[in-house]
Each structure stands twice: as C-alpha cells, then as structure tokens.
Amino acid sequence: MRKVAILGIGQTKVDEHWEKSLREVGGEAAFLAMQDAGVDRVEALFVGNMLSPLISRQNQLGTFFSDWVGLWKQEAVKIEAACGSGAAAFRSALMAVASGDVDSALVLGVEKMTDKPGGEVTAALATAADADYEVEQGVSFVGINALVMRRYMHEYGWKHADFAPFSINAHANAMHNPFARLHDTVTVEKYEKSSMVATPINLMDASPVGDGAAAAVIVPAEKVLRQPRVVVAASAAATDTISVHSRKDPLFLNAAYLSSKQAYQMAGVKPVEVSVFELHDAFTIMAALSLEATGFAERGKGVRLGLENQIGIEGKIPVCTRGGLKARGHPVGATGMYQIVEVVQQLRGECGATQVEDANIGMTQNIGGSGATILTHILRRE
Question: Which CATH class is domain 4-117+209-223?
C-alpha cells in the first residue's frame, strides 16, 4: 500500500446558507480544496453525506457534484454512514489512492440542513438510530444521548455542571475560527442557566446543526512537495450495535476503542504522543466517553480532563481546537471532513491563536449514530 498525503484542503463557513443551494455549498469547498492543491482535475470523487435524500430531495451526489465541479467521466460516489459519513468518504478515497487504483482523489463532506423545519430535521437525524427499537418508541437522537448522560452521572457521581468545560473550551476556540458557526463565549453561569433540551442535556451540551462543506485532495505522498507535508499515518473503522440498549456496556464506546487501538498500532504511536484530537462532541457526554475510549482518561474520569484544564490548547490533550461540533457546528455528513481539514491546519501551523505548539501528530474521530459507527484517522507532519 502506498503512503498517502493531503495535498489541499477547503471549507465553507458553517451557517444557515439560505442563499446557497446544496451544490453551491459543496462546490465552494471542492473548488477551494483543488485550488489549495494546485490542481484542476482528480481521478475520483468521494462524497460524504447523510441527509440529502431527506432534506434536499437529492440523491446521486457523486455524479451531482462531479457535474457541478467539472469532473466529467471520472469515478464519483456518495458514502453514507450517518454522522460519520465524512470520515467514511475519506477512508474510501484513501483506500483507492493507497491501493494504486487512482492517483488522486477529491473527498467532499457536505450537508444542507436548514432548508426544512426543525421537526423534520430531527426526524431525519433519528434515522441514524434503530428504527424499530428506538425511533419507533418516540426517542429522539438527543433523547438517547440524554439517557446515556444521566446514567453516566449516576454511575460515576458527576454533576451536570462538571461537563461545562467541554462547552467552554469549544466556544473559546471557535472565537478564532472564521468558519465556525457560533462566535460567543460560554461561562459556567451561562452553561448552567441554558435552556433544557432533554434532561440533563441543555443547549450548551448540544451541538448546533447547519449548512456546510469541507474537502481535501489526496495523492501519493511522493507527489507532495509543499512543506510541511501532511501524511495519513492511520485509518481505522469499527462498529457497535446500532441501538444503545443492545450494548453490553452503554457507557463505553467500544467502536471508538477498537478503531483508535487499530489506528495507534498502524501509526506506531501512543495516546501520549498525539498533539491534537478533534473528537466528535455532538454532545458533551460524547466528549467524555471518547476521551475514555481512546485512552486519554480512565473509565468514568473523562470529565476530569475538562475540570483540570487539560483539554485546552496548552493542555495534556487539546481537543476541538477550532470549535468542535459544539461551536464550529455540526453539518452532519460534513463533520468528519471538517475534522480532517482542521487537523491539517494544525499540522501546517495555520491556526493562529488556537495553534497547538509543535503539533506533529493529529487524530480525528468521527461518530455515526450513538457510537454505532466510529472512524479514527491519524495524520502526521513530515
């Protein structure tokens, strides 16, 4: 298998883009990535998206976007893995280039979510859960996470306010990211007084949806001359039961554990060597569970990393350095590619006030559903 590097990146601001269509939002990120890469053609296009058939009434996104950006006749396909669609598309493109099947690929994560009423979007997101045993019982996606968070607090004795640092950190970092949706600071007081969504999850525990797209051009590493060069050191994916209640332990993200373990082995690194971690903080509880499953904290102690200021830019393990899902926003099918783009920015040294000093190894973890599909990637600066 060939070593693969990221030649170019592009992203749009996460927002309510009423004036832009799905093709315009995605096309903007695709063109920016190709411009950054210095190319006008690639051999294949992989699109990560979850909701376009339900929200935009548009399928065939591979051909849809290859037509829009002028990549006619090339291989083009859409990859769907719920909220993990972006990383799943990246992994598919990676395997195509690493195997030698193609010499270049454009990966695009895109989602248009604000063109429908909130109730319809919530129902569409619920399709990531078990239709028979979760959705049919009237449990929303936020409701499922609220049950997990309540159980976690009960088992390990944490208070709701103990989760505040995850939200505070994400919003503080997003203040310096022009592509982030939310540019307001969060205090403990604001966190505690926020409106409740599904007890114990309030607005400050939950990430906002939005319209957005992020993209990358990948090629064999020897073709990248720019310095520093960012290579893909590891790519791994794992699954768990689609329903939370079917798991042996609903408070452990086994797919995160398995995929990160495989990624660490592939990259030849340990958790302590990771400079920056773009985790999937769709809800604050998922941030805590991710830190535990990936080896940065012991079981039941993920919250402590936030309380001890270990997740900030100068902390033990900087997370959500560009705002994470919580403040950058969560355009679900695009989120995994935003994470890739943001780690590339870190390894290139392009993050300004939120730049992690001497960042040379970055990890992303993209979650589909309530931990059912989890993909972990490790990037290295050379």
Answer: alpha beta
